Amino acid sequence: MHPDEPWLDYDPKAHKCLQERQKEEIQEKAQSNNSDEPWIEHGKRMQEKAKAHYQACLEREKAKELAKEQNNAQKEVKKEMPTIDYGYTQNTLSKSRRR
């Protein structure tokens, strides 16, 4: 025992969170022991992940197509609008603008 330095007495195995995590791991092992074929469960989980990934990819593709269609529609509207040139140039000198 170190009264002035309590951190020297620290026992990582006695930590509360670690004990809770170990209990959870033991429970998970007990549950997995009940099933005879854990690789089948793993396969099912992987299949669910693959389906979710595939759905996400489809949604992304749909979103890209919608964005392209909207951009095309906007470009068509811009083409229909006549551009009016008022004779102003963007490269005018700043001195001539100050008048």
From TrEMBL:
Q: Compositional bias (Polar residues) at which positions?
A: 88-99
Biased segments, Basic and acidic residues type: 39-51
**Where are the stretches annotated Disordered?**
23-52, 66-99
Q: What is this protein called?
A: Uncharacterized protein
- Lineage, broadest ranks: Bacteria, Pseudomonadati, Campylobacterota, Epsilonproteobacteria, Campylobacterales
